[in-house]
């Protein structure tokens, strides 16, 4: 007997609170997770004073927002000053705490790793062992006693490593290099079945003065054998999307198919190589026009059945589709806090998808 098809009912569960008289500009790459049933959205980065191609500077924020979760509705409990200007970390919720791994501050990748927990109504964090190298835009998941960190990048390179840390060890554990991928990748979607397998979907690898490689592969890492297998291809090559694992299914949400991103990258490469100032100025104008008219990101939501190895499209994201954020699974809810919705633009919305 075939399993019933999964459906997802998308809605806006809440918003980030307005700052002063203005609406909240939203954040990309927030530190986010669930601690003691409280949704935490902290840190992240935005452009509150203008788009980057207009000279606007990226701001790394230091606020922490805490929400209670009542079915598909979020209620803001409190706002705190976040003790860090951290963004683009890999985040993973485990039980009653969550972790941030790597990320960046002011454009500089970090190796910092933290565990976040609620004590009373206050968010506390505990520093754990550093990653072996500073990496941002990686992805994380949990299997058994370990959290795993996949890929990532820094100013020098894109990583092909998978590191893991024993979070149940009574001693101060260190990260270990667990496996190497057949390719270097950042901005991948990484999920696990929680028991024995990790899945790595899509992602990208930047290249100097040329287009990034956008991946369309779905890889499986078997924990017991340490074997990595290319199990399928994605319906479309994407990077910077989000996803969760739910009852034998990978739910892959949104992402950037790079159709606009590649046009911008090609122009940036040409700008960097052009010596004629008049031609360079014309290339810059073309690049800025493309970024200003960015159409947004993929709205598609795909479900991959691990048993049948088949993809099925389900209910798409309604409204703007965020990337560079984290999808958090709580029971039958998928929570996606803030994120980037087109070049330089964030959303103040926290999306909730109820799986039916």
Question: What report would you give on this structure?
Answer:
The structure is a single chain. The chain is mainly beta and 356 residues long. It has helices at residues 259-273, 277-292, and strands at 8-15, 31-35, 38-42, 45-46, 59-60, 63-70, 73-81, 90-94, 97-101, 104-105, 108-109, 113-119, 122-127, 139-143, 146-150, 161-166, 176-180, 189-192, 197-201, 204-207, 210-214, 217-222, 227-233, 242-246, 249-253, 301-305, 310-314, 328-330, 333-337, 340-342, 345-346, 349-355. Helices cover 9% and strands 44% of the residues. The strands form ten sheets. The protein has a four-stranded antiparallel beta sheet with strand order 1-32-29-28, with no helix packed on it. A four-stranded antiparallel beta sheet has the order 2-3-6-7, with no helix packed on it. Strands 8-9-12-13 form a four-stranded antiparallel beta sheet, with no helix packed on it. Strand 22 (217-222) and strand 23 (227-233) form a beta hairpin. Helix 1 packs antiparallel against helix 2 (277-292). The protein is globular, with a radius of gyration of 20 Å. The protein starts with 7 loop residues before the first strand and ends with a strand. The model has no long low-confidence stretch (mean pLDDT 95).
If strands are numbered along the chain, what order do they take across the biggest sheet? 1-32-29-28
CATH class label: Mainly Beta
Portion of residues in helices? under 10%
Mean pLDDT: 95
Shape: globular
CATH H-level superfamily title? Kelch-type beta propeller
Number of helices: 2
Which structural class matches the secondary elements?
mainly beta
CATH topology: Neuraminidase
User: Can you summarize the main beta sheet?
Assistant: 4 strands, antiparallel
Count of folded domains: 1
